Amino acid sequence: MDLKPSQSLTETDVSRGLKLVIGDGLASEAMTTLTGGAFVVAMAILLGANNLQLGLIAALPTLVNLFQLISIWLVRRFNNRRIVTVTCAFLARFPLIIIGIFPLLWPEWTTIELIIPILFFYYFSGAIAGASWNSWMKDLVPGNQLGAYFAKRSSYMQTLNAVLSLLLALGIDYIRDHQPSMELNVYGWMFIAAGIFGLCGAIFLSKTPEPQVYMTKENIFRLLRGPLKDSNFRRLLIFNSAWVFAVNIAAPFFTVFMMKSMGLGLSYIIGLTILSQVSSILTIRLWGMFADRYSNKTIIAIGAPLYILCLVGWCFVGIYSQLWPNLVLLTCIHIVMGFANAGINLSLTNIGLKLAPQSDAIYYLATKNIVTAVFSSLAPLAGGYLADYFTGRHLKIDAEWGSPNWTKAFHLVELHEWNFLFAFGALLALIAVNRLSRVKETGEVEKDMVVRIMRSTIRHNLKQSFLIGNLMTGYSTIKNVFRRKFF
């Protein structure tokens, strides 16, 4: 297998490489779906994990980014990002197969204390692969296509995630209801399948061309300090770090809250997650188009306030005695979160790529990942600690209307355990957004102008729809008839 970089790439090479990267994305998404999100949380809860351990599991994917210095050293040593990425990707997949084997062969030895160290090695190897992959993609994907290409790739991945997640959730809920003793075995097979899908993704990457780059041999720590001396990039780091801390102090516990406090099954949780993903899929290409046309910063400025409103909305989940009002609120929250996250995540990735100089991209991106990893990994740990602290504590606010004939009490809000985290996360996210205005990006446009253009574009797209277009036409016709008749 030839993993050597090419001195130059033709348009055919680039086109073939972009298709292979999408193939890797789909295989990696299948791997992530089988071993992440609600499923790893459900498995951890089944194994008796406490809040701090749940927070640690949520922190691991970002905590290991601190070790991306190893990736930089390897790329400098070999001047070959593909061999570093592919080798570490292969090493990252085998721990998943090991985790899957334990419940099947040695269920009595399968404990959360065993699973967490193996997961650490999986994420550790993946982080090293990810750092060199980011630099590789920076040179492979044409700069004027970054937003559109990664939006397209992300939409494919989210579609696969939605379909696969729903099938898995229905299957696990069926096993829980009819053969609960087999639930741990199901998670075992899921991890084995994830490892196999992950290996397929590594094979796709091994066939993806890489343009040759030669990295400077200067002191690595001096090079990493370079991005910190770049005032504009430093402001981006401050905003990004504050944002991920605010988000990750709350987000990892959404699933835990729905499972433990509300008693929802995986089918409900995955169904809501799919709603969020569908919202992302339907809008991410629009976000990508506007990010390329205007600026990533503007997209974040639009999406962040919407996400904060969703965090506030989580504080009101569970206050109703009946299930359906809570489900309606959760549905609205997940749809808006999917819409907001699509723009925020895409733009946070792209703005880092855009502000990083071509020659020093790997140092800038590694510095960004390392710095944000500290805050992103500390947040779930802090969240788990705070959840334990707020256990047994609550804040209840009611309103009562009294009259001579009747009295009515309105249950406005009740904060406890998890809801305190959501309120705290919303407050921190609001503080973080205020740091965004200090970041400068070429081509940025006023947020209000982009909002107006987006509204116009969405309205125009809706009018192109046969059904919606006819409804609008019918409404206008009825309105004109009404005006002629009565006015």
TrEMBL record:
The keyword Membrane applies. Keywords: Membrane, Transmembrane, Transmembrane helix. The chain crosses the membrane at residues 26-48, 54-75, 82-102, 114-136, 156-175, 187-205, 237-259, 265-287, 299-321, 327-349, 361-386, 418-437. The keyword Calcium does not apply. GO terms for molecular function: transmembrane transporter activity. InterPro entries: MFS, MFS_trans_sf, Sugar_transport-like. It comes from the Bacteria. Pfam families: MFS_1 (PF07690). PANTHER family: INTEGRAL MEMBRANE TRANSPORT PROTEIN-RELATED, MAJOR FACILITATOR SUPERFAMILY (MFS) PROFILE DOMAIN-CONTAINING PROTEIN. This is Major Facilitator Superfamily protein. It comes from Chitinophaga niabensis. The lineage of its organism: Bacteria, Pseudomonadati, Bacteroidota, Chitinophagia, Chitinophagales.
